[in-house]
From TrEMBL:
Lineage: Bacteria, Pseudomonadati, Pseudomonadota, Alphaproteobacteria, Rhodobacterales
Name this polypeptide is given: Uncharacterized protein
UniProtKB keywords: Membrane, Transmembrane, Transmembrane helix
Naturally occurring in which organism (per UniProt): Yoonia ponticola
Transmembrane segments: 12-34, 46-70, 76-98, 105-123
């Protein structure tokens, strides 16, 4: 029976690396704060130098929904409704602000050593 990555003795590095990666990833992601900057009058995204707001995205959505309710097989109605939903989701995601919480330099270094040290051990265990 062979170990992790088909090599002998890679199980210890595999398990320790995996635990370190999970711990470092959890600590990194738990120290990130997400703040939305999105509302009805805010810019969703730019399209050819024109700012597209969320209100502008809702106009084709309303027409698409009306067309779908009038005729459920209307391809244009479905395209307008689905396209507007995709544009709204893309606008929300693009307007999120990601920030770190207050961390000391020691805390950040411990998180990074756990994360990238775990990646190194994990990859070493898979090496043949």
């Amino acid at each position: 029976m062979r170990g992790a990555g088909g090599s002998d003795g890679g199980e210890f590095n595999f398990v320790i690396g995996l635990v370190m990666m999970v711990a470092g990833g959890y600590l990194l992601l738990s120290n990130i704060v997400i703040r939305p900057n999105f509302g009805m009058g805010t810019r969703a995204f730019g399209l050819g130098g024109v700012d597209v707001t969320t209100g502008m995205i809702l106009i084709p959505f309303m027409f698409g929904i009306a067309m779908v309710f009038y005729n459920g097989r209307s391809k244009i109605g479905w395209a307008l409704a689905v396209g507007a939903i995709i544009a709204l989701i893309a606008g929300v995601i693009s307007n999120l602000t990601l920030q770190f919480t207050r961390l000391s330099a020691f805390d950040l270094l411990v998180i990074l050593v756990l994360l990238f040290g775990g990646v190194g051990l994990f990859l070493r265990s898979l090496r043949g």
